[in-house]
Design goal:
The protein is built from 3 helices and 2 strands. By secondary structure, the chain is mainly alpha-helical. The protein has one domain. It has a two-stranded antiparallel sheet. The radius of gyration is 16 Å and the shape is extended.
């Protein structure tokens, strides 16, 4: 997992973000690669972030933490 902070900017009728060169290199990201984002706005609290999953996730907290640990450390 690679973390970076960037600013969303208007790009035509859309909003775009630019990934810094060092992030592209560390992630070995090349043109036309499919990448997945976890978006967290600066003012979002953990309660707001995880609250959006209420009723959608049917696993216990410890089971979720274990799964996240496995996925983070296996990349």
């Amino acid at each position: 997992m690679i973390e970076c902070e960037t600013t969303a900017k208007k790009w035509g009728n859309s909003i775009g973000v630019i990934l810094p060169k060092d992030v592209l290199e560390r992630g070995e990201i090349k043109e036309n690669d499919t990448i997945r984002f976890l978006l967290i706005k600066e003012n979002q609290t953990p309660k707001k972030i995880f609250g959006m999953f209420k009723g959608r996730i049917h696993k216990g907290t410890q089971e979720l933490k274990d799964q996240i640990r496995r996925e983070v450390h296996n990349d």
